[in-house]
Amino acid sequence: MNKKNNPVIFAGAGPGDPELITVKAMQALKQADLIIYAGSLVPEAVLCWKSKETETLSSAGLDLDQIIDKIQAYHSNGEKVVRLHTGDPALYGAIFEQMRRLDSLNIPYSVIPGVTAAFAASAAMNMEYTLPEITQTLILTRISGRTPVPETEDLETLAAHKASMAIYLSIGHIKKVQYILEKHYGSASQCAIAYKVSHPEETIIRTKIKDLTEACQKNDITRHALV
Fold it and tell me: How many whole angstroms from its chain centre is CA 75?
């Protein structure tokens, strides 16, 4: 096989614990010549699986052109490139735009899934999202902010289903989240804030919806958490 046919690998790093990465992703890291990882979202502890000779590069501060240029340079030399995303690359991973650019350059790629934070959180809480006669649906979503959400997927619309819900990337709008959840689930319903789940700093805060904002403020949680 022509070494230049080595596909670029988009791999899920999982939620943070190096042991929650898949075996397939671990092997890809071990064999990589270059790993471009998603800045502060992927803890450096996950890079423990790489070879000593592997070059690592944080994508924090890099724009799409710089990332693609780096990938192209290594790929053209027949070297193996891993683009390491937090959780599962398919969920808020922004891999679509990268893959389209690689398509335009005729650079092959493949994707290795990973454990997303919602499932690491449910494991940490010994909790099941789908319970018979209660709910058989799990909604993974975010509130509209700097990244807009389609009107048909507005949190208000989705919350009306009263299904199990994991809300990503929304702690910065926690007052609005609380208002919407109270309206549809009731102020006394239970919820949880999962902060840096599976990291050494993991904190799980169980609270009632009416106390959601207060719990975030009291524990100084402003990012890296889902509800």
Answer: 26
80's tokens = 């193996």
- Among 119, 88, 128, which Cα is nearest to 194's? 119
Which residue in 226, 142, 161, 139 sits closest to 191, CA to CA?
226
Q: What pLDDT, in 10s, does the model give residues 173-193?
A: 999 999 999 999 999 999 999
SS3 letters across the chain: CCHHHCCEEEEECECCCHHHCCHHHHHHHHHCCEEEECHHHCCHHHHHHCCCCCEEEECCCCCHHHHHHHHHHHHHCCCCEEEEECECCCCCCCHHHHHHHHHHCCCCEEEECCCCHHHHHHHHCCCCCCECCCECCEEEEECCCCCCCCHHHCHHHHHCCCCEEEEECCHHHHHHHHHHHHHHHCCCCEEEEEECCCCCCCEEEEEEHHHHHHHHHHCCCCCCEEC
pTM, 2 dp: 0.91
Tens digits of residue pLDDT in 30-87:
999 999 998 878 888 899 999 999 999 999 989 999 999 999 999 999 999 999 999 9
Confidence band of 1 (pLDDT split at 50, 70, 90) = very low
